[in-house]
Design goal:
By secondary structure, the chain is of the alpha+beta class. It has 2 domains: 47 residues; 140 residues, VirB8 protein (Nuclear Transport Factor 2, Chain: A, Roll), CATH 3.10.450. Helix content is 47%, strand content 33%. The protein has a 4-stranded antiparallel β-sheet with strand order 3-4-5-6, with helices on one face. A two-stranded antiparallel sheet has the order 1-2. It is rod-shaped. The N and C termini lie far apart (124 Å). InterPro entries: Conjug_transposon_TraK. It comes from Sphingobacterium hotanense. This is Conjugative transposon protein TraK. Keywords: Membrane, Transmembrane, Transmembrane helix.
Length: 206
Amino acid sequence: MFNKIKNIDTAFRQLRQTVVLVIISSTLVLVIALGFAYRLVSRTQDRIYVLADGKAFQVFASSTRDNIPVEAREHIRSFHRYFFTLDPDEKAIKYNLQHALYLADVSAKRAYDDLQENGFYASLISGNVNQTIRVDSVQVDVEEYPYRFRCFSNQQIIRPRSITHRELVTEGYLRRVSRSDNNPHGFLIERWRTVRNRDLSTQNRY
């Protein structure tokens, strides 16, 4: 009888050891599987597929922090292109300025109101004047928030009888806001002002 009890006790201990080993093994497998799944999901989230000419191309996304200088500079370029690209067409002027004012605060609206009151846009239309801008470089300091920037650009003003090239330097600050269709980069220009705006050269067209 004692041998039977001893055998039962031994069998129970072996069963308990087996169960413990199975639980430990299952836990290890689960942890390893979760680790692999997390790495796979992380890598998948960094992949973007772009469709071009009916073909899918895989590209890799960078972190938001890495993109801040790039997106900030593009936001500033977009604002200046919209604000300073003007044609002798009231609807075209309104379209561009409407887009520009989504990207900046009241400082840009004040500059627009001043130009409007001084008859600047009316003189463009009546004088058949085209104005374009080329942004040469944008400096953004992302070490301190809000981000300070300075934009260096050149304007070309085409009048019926002359073409004027003008240097334009502006500066301001960038604040983060929510992204939208009207503001895809998620920045807002604040305290925007013109530092330098001077004629470089003028040439006759005829």
